[in-house]
């Protein structure tokens, strides 16, 4: 059986006639500085909307079912501030991951002028992407959804409607971390809420048939005329139970999913090997660095609270022309 070399396609790219710069149109005129990056993909946009809807649903249940009706104001304030802060950071990280250029290579730059500007030495090789007509830097891969070559592309994530690459991997890692944290926080609050309401409130209000009609009438007269008959929720016990069960299912599902994604992303950063490179088992052609240096390369130099902030942009430095040649 004939074995196909791992870098068979790159060997094809080494042939001089493969570049064919005369067949590449000049790159489009660059847009104004600060132009927002956004991928117009129907599936990705739908997934992003679902992500926001699920976070806002969790926000609704936590506030209006568990915290606001509670008479323990200290508990409500502390947990309300913590949950809203984590939810805000999660959504902010999602926006940064979705609207940040992941490291797209200029489209159509495989022109004769650009190749000459690289001042190639004898024996040096450049790679061209036949799909977007770009000179590919080392470790760049083409994304069929973004229709661009992405530097250090890890994967395309429909939940953020974008590729995870060199420039936005930090925001994706923060997004998975904060979603995992709010999922865990919501599950803990649901557990306490079930225990408290089942033992002290629901057993005497609507979930049991104990008590005489006179007792129930006297309770109704002494209770305030609001939409809630208990301190557990503004909704009826059956509705409250359904809302909490849905939140519990959502929290458990996303806690597992985002925890796994967070772990794989951190492992990928520490080993300095993207998901695509691991999947394709590509030969390592770049210098090996320590795990700490790899983390700083993604989250920024030096270590600070900015690592946990989706508003702090890591400094990746300017593009080096030598990254296009081998």
TrEMBL record:
* Catalytic activity field: L-cysteinyl-[protein] + hexadecanoyl-CoA = S-hexadecanoyl-L-cysteinyl-[protein] + CoA
- Give all residue intervals belonging to the Palmitoyltransferase DHHC domain: 128-281
Per the record, the domain of life is Eukaryota
Q: Where in the cell is it found?
A: Membrane
What EC number(s) are associated with this protein in UniProt? 2.3.1.225
Span-the-membrane segments of this chain are 45-67, 73-92, 171-195, 241-262
Membrane-topology annotation of the record: Multi-pass membrane protein
The record's keywords, sorted A to Z, are:
Acyltransferase, Membrane, Transferase, Transmembrane, Transmembrane helix
Q: Which GO terms describe its cellular component?
A: membrane
Q: Which molecular-function annotation in GO is an example for this chain?
A: protein-cysteine S-palmitoyltransferase activity
- What does the sequence similarity comment in the record state about its family? Belongs to the DHHC palmitoyltransferase family.
Return the PANTHER family for the record. PALMITOYLTRANSFERASE ZDHHC16 (PTHR12246)
> Which comment does the entry carry about domains?
The DHHC domain is required for palmitoyltransferase activity.
Q: What is this protein called?
A: Palmitoyltransferase
**What organism is listed for this UniProt entry?**
Myotis davidii (David's myotis)
